[in-house]
Specification:
The structure holds 2 protein chains of 2 kinds. Chain A is an alpha+beta fold. Chain A is built from 11 helices and 14 strands. Chain A folds into 4 domains: 31 residues; 114 residues; 179 residues, Immunoglobulin-like; 138 residues, OmpA-like domain (60s Ribosomal Protein L30, Chain: A, 2-Layer Sandwich). In chain A, the strands form 3 sheets. Chain A has a 5-stranded mixed sheet, with no helix packed on it. Chain A has a 5-stranded mixed sheet with strand order 4-10-9-6-7. In chain A, helix 1 packs across helix 2. The termini of chain A are far apart. The mean pLDDT of chain A is 90. Chain B has one domain: Up-down Bundle (Cytochrome C Oxidase, Chain A). In chain B, 60% of the residues lie in helices and 3% in strands. The longest helix of chain B has 37 residues. Classes of the chains: A alpha+beta, B mainly alpha. At the A-B interface, helix 1, helix 2, helix 3, helix 4 and strand 7 of A face helix 5, strand 3, helix 9, helix 10 and helix 11 of B.
Amino acid sequence: MTLLTIFIIFVLFAVVIVQISRINEMAKAIKGEEEVSDRSMDRQGKLLFGFMVVFLVGTVWSAWAYRNVMLGYGPHEAASAHGGSLDSLFNATLAMTGIVFIITHIALFYFAWKYRRRSNARATHISHDNRLEVIWTIIPAFAMVGLVISSLMIWNDVMADVDPDEDYLEIEATGTQFQWFIRYPGPDQKLGTKNFRLIEGSNALGQDWSDLKNLDDFIAQEIWLPKGKKVRVRIAARDVLHSFYLPHFRVKMDAVPGLPTMFVFTPIKTTEEYREELSKYSEYQVPADPDDPDGPQKWEVFDYELACAELCGYGHYSMRKVVKIVEEPEYRAWLREQESFYVQSIRGTDADPYKDQLFDYELADRKAEFERDFGDALSAADDAARIVRLKYVNFETASANLTALSRYELDNAAEVLQGNPSVVVELGGHTDSAGDADANLDLSRRRANAVLTYLSGKGIDTNRLVARGYGDLNPIDDNGTEEGRANNRRTELKIISE
Amino acid sequence: MADVVEDVQAQEKLIEELGYDDHFHEHHKQDKYASGFISKYVFSQDHKIIAKQFLITGMIWAIIGSAMSVIFRMQLGFPEESLTWIKPLLGKWITVDANGMGTLNPEFYYALVTMHGTIIVFFVLTAGLSGTFSNLLIPLQLGSRDMASPFLNMLSYWFFFLASIIMFTSLFLNTGPFSGGWVAYPPLSALPEASSGSKAGMTLWTMSLVFFVVSVLLGGVNYITTVLNLRTKGMSMFRMPLSIWAFFITAIIALLSFPVLVSAFLMLILDRGLGTSFFLSEIFIGGQALDHVGGSPILYQHLFWFLGHPEVYIIILPAMGLVSEVLSVHSRKPIFGYTAMVLSMMAIAFLSFLVWAHHMFMSGVNPFISSIFVIFTLIIAVPSAVKVFNWIATVYKGNIRLVTPCLFAIGFVSMFISGGLTGIFLGSSAIDIQLHDTYFVVAHFHIVMGVAAFFGMFAGIYHWYPKMYGRFMNETLGKIHFWGTMIGAYVIFWPMHYLGMAGVPRRYYKFDTFQAFADFSDMNKFITIGAIIVFGVQLIFVINFFYSIWRGKKQTTKNPWGASTLEWTTPIRPGHGNWPGKIPSVHRWAYDYSKGEREVITQIEPIGEDEKLDSH
């Protein structure tokens, strides 16, 4: 229906247009071609001149009206060390081209008006002037050479890579349809290697876990950077082209699948400082949310942003990440909260190549944990609390064979028992309720014995050790859930006397 | 115009006495190449008919292409408005929710943006502009009967037609037309998994453009051969009008650069269909790692822009040629610095092959490579500036007939200055870090090669309309068209510079996802309203064009504008072969206006005894 209306409007429009044109033709026929022509030239000349005035005033006025987006001005000052030089170059170019723009426009339209046709006038035959040609070739040529030199000096400065012995922070940004993954190197300051063939649901970047440098890398939800520190961003893409674009920092570089790119920059203003700056301008002293006049003002909620600047598909416009620039101490605090992606999601799973070994820090942690638990149990008054659960002792399914990693916990137990020679303990085996009760009882006994055997092998007198199987009789959790059953399958160390 | 004294008989006598007799016989009824309706109007080998075919096909594409821009401008200017009303046209690409609110599908938004670019750049401003005027003017202004190979010329149009049909078909695909941007960067364009438009839409897109390149090459070979071999007696290269120089140089650029595009497309087709890895490496998409390893998406960009940058000169040079011609004729003055104009065009053409990587400063190429391209890019501003100064010097002390074609020529110069100057910002790699792929770029190229090229085309159409149809287009409507377009174009594109400076990226479906880009909704509304009005104004032109074919003011004199060039020595409606008897011979350059006592001396007049020569 609307389309039909539009069509009808168009037809009426066409009829009106044709009628206008015919009226004009008739006017010409009545008044005489010559007179109409002279009057028309006059009118067009004035219009051209008027257009020039309005246009030039308009350009200057609009530049004033939009001063807030002028590069290098107040609310649009660059937040990076190199940004200022780009802004100055922009403004120098603006000044130069602005002058040319105004002069050529005045000349063009002024001449068009001044030399509009009059039936009694004549044009002057001027075919060429080689001196003029030389002048207006050489002047732009010099101007361009000047621009080339200043541009290239800044360019080479901005695009330079870091010195190897320089202090800098390296992070990695990987674009995919349609989000960014930001990877930090973790405490070792080194990003681990990647391979696109290793990418899967739990490993979005294809980090190679056999590379130790990967194990402390973390993936951040926001980009946090300390003020004043040089940052080298490694830029990568997983599927199609993207572009790593930080408008406030004058940073932009394509992310190309198969070709790592990079950009080095130094943030010089914290998010807070940028907000302070914005708070001085009335355009930012308005509610951030127009529907909530009492809410925070626009400058208060300002954040730096990461965008994508290379068409990457239908979600191209939505690849946003918040960038926070903070002072060094705040950055350190934030770093401490971040957990390695490997530890969080990969450790101990099938994807973990180190599944059957413990790292030194894990050994130390577990030892401290066991000593603490044992100490607690020893000092407890209540009999029921004088039990230490051997959390990391596990058996192969339906068997009394200890898993490889269990020995670390048992070594801790042996060491503690040696340090407390008067303590006598009961080693209690427990199973879940799955399967036959007698078989479970038998299995729990064999498992308790296995632990006893291991400990005695470590030099603990068998008089101090009692092995006992409880089967599924003493559950500590719900046998109806997988998680509960896992908790019920356990080995306990109970202090009988000291 | 009445004040140009025209002595038809004297002219005909000159042709008869001094013309070259090529034993051409006019076949009034038995012309085997132009007798039946089909051979005369459809599969015509007459360059004048082929020019009109290019022009009208180009106009149809221009309407489609700009209508698309109106739709995606609606999305950008009024994202909250319902687009349900356009559902009958766009069908499933408008999603209507429970409240009747219709939204444009983002995938289709990108398809519209892509098609708009492809159509306007290739089908309108290459085929519609260069195809129309090279065909119309090369034989007429050189004094030849037709193109060197009329048959190839006909093929050139029909390959364009085939390309058009294929592209048009792709608009109706279930998976949508290609949506990866007119530059079609892989991997997005290479992988059907990456985007729905990269499925069948992309296949048809590449097919269409390969046929299009065939059309351009057939045309180009013809233009070059004709210019080199079929100039009439006395028409030395440096007596040719600047329009011919422009078409000639354009054809050379096209011949050298378009094949490179085809090679890029060929590799892209192989990557898409046969598992090669020219442009693909280390990609994980659609839940799996692809086998492609070792290719480089950057290679495609080099190949694409090796055409892509010369392409903008393929578009703008013919417009420059037309404008030079129109400005000179209507100023009643010689073009200022003819030799400088020719040399600057040659310089632009040469340099246009050395600047392509300025589109790639931020694409991951070595920054050192970029430095070299900065140098050439900024140097190309020099010949461009020379041309501008020469145009301004041409109107200086003229007696300027401010009729529609001349207004458009003046508008062209303004647009070329405004858009050219912003090119200096973008050509500087350091500034480009911030401005690359923002609206500043959109503003720049729309003004300098979009609007300016359209202005050149309009100047050409209004000026040579009598030559095409023996009638004039309506002046009043022409002036409404000019002023609406002139003001409207700046209203649309000037504000975009500010968007770009603020950092707003191009090719965004909407801006409210980012704080930094969300502040410009008023400006975007303003631009959209401007775009709708300018679109309406173009419809005035279309109506004027078709109405005038049958009802326009009749041309009564052979040389209504008082021009010196050969096309105005033909009959008002030239037949197949252009001149009924001998071909006129040429005795002077094309710009003897207001020389001595006479307002114009046509090229066919011998040099007078006491006449001072303008070194040509």
